[in-house]
Amino acid sequence: RVKMSDEDILVCAVKFGDNFCLYFEGLECDAFSKEKTLQRFLRNVNSQLLVVRPDLNVAAFEDVTDQEMRSGNGMHFNIHYYKTTTPSAGMPVAFSVQIADKSYYMCGEKECGKMIVRFREGEVPKEIPDTSNAIFFKKTFTSCSSRAFKFEHSLERGMFLAFEEEGSLRKLILKKLSREDEVDETMKI
Q1: Where are the domains of the chain?
Q2: What is the distance between the terminal CA atoms of the chain, rounded to a whole angstrom?
Q3: pLDDT digits (tens, 9 = 90+) for 61-93
Q4: How far apart are CA 70 and CA 65, in angstroms?
Q5: What is the CA angle 137-139-141, rounded to 5?
Q6: Rounded to an integer, what is the distance from CA 8 to the centroid of its chain?
Q7: Phi-psi region for residue 112, left (φ > 0), alpha (ψ -120 to 50) or beta?
Q8: What's the CATH architecture for 28-187?
Q9: pTM of the model as a whole
Q10: What is the dihedral of CA 125, 128, 134, 135, to 10 degrees?
């Protein structure tokens, strides 16, 4: 950075190559690289835990007993934090969960014109070159709830993880926020 009057101006190092092409040094390309992983339970506003059941192709918030919680099968989420060159969108994260001897990662996919949450068998990548349907941007739910978050899908801006009542289930979905300043309790995780 160079200070000229009251304005900061970003200056990049450059060099000429053998073919007289101009090269910029020290610039990073847009990419995500895994920084750290934390293991957590994901709870909704009703203190229910998110449980993944890939055999039924469903993820839902459920009341869980202490014994079920200790087993953690389908409930202990790995939250993979990524470094990014564009931090303004929020902290990029991906979710995975271990069920029996298999690992599943969460992604948002378009099906029949509607965005849905899916759990795919496999590991989240260490490096994501550009974009991924497995990346969500972690944002503070509200300025006064520092321990609650909402997660915006990286490819479908304005779509957040939420829950929706479906019969007796509180199913995990992707839901469109109608206004940026709207507070929707179904998105509070």
Answers
A1: 28-187
A2: 39
A3: 999 888 888 887 889 999 999 887 666 678 899
A4: 9
A5: 140
A6: 33
A7: left
A8: Trefoil (2.80)
A9: 0.78
A10: 130
